[in-house]
Amino acid sequence: AELYVGCVSGASTMDEYLGFIHQGGFADIKLHKEKRIEMPEGIITHPDGNEVSGVYSITLSAYKPQTIN
Fold first, then answer.
1. In whole angstroms, what is the distance from residue 25 CA to residue 64 CA?
2. I need a labelling partner for 50 at 20 to 30 A (CA). Which of 18, 39, 42, 64 fits?
């Protein structure tokens, strides 16, 4: 359990994570791979007390447009 928690502690939801990338000025964000990491039921709960329904590893690409000053 400690290894699972250490790996995902503080992790964002996928929507939050993609939002951070977008807010950072990146564009053309493409999700290439999405892999569900199997976890025993009830081992991880969200800070709001709800059980986490899935943990995923993703591979994506994006580019940051060059700004002209």
1. 6
2. 18
- Hey, how many other C-beta atoms are within 10 angstroms of the C-beta on 11? 13
Supply 12's token pair: 């964002």
3-state SS class at 16: helix
Q: Is the pTM of this model over 0.70?
A: no
**What is the end-to-end Cα distance of the chain in Å, rounded?**
50
* Alpha carbon distance 36, 13 (integer Å): 13
Identify which of 39, 17, 40 has the alpha carbon closest to the alpha carbon of residue 29: 17
Query: Residues, the chain, total?
Result: 69
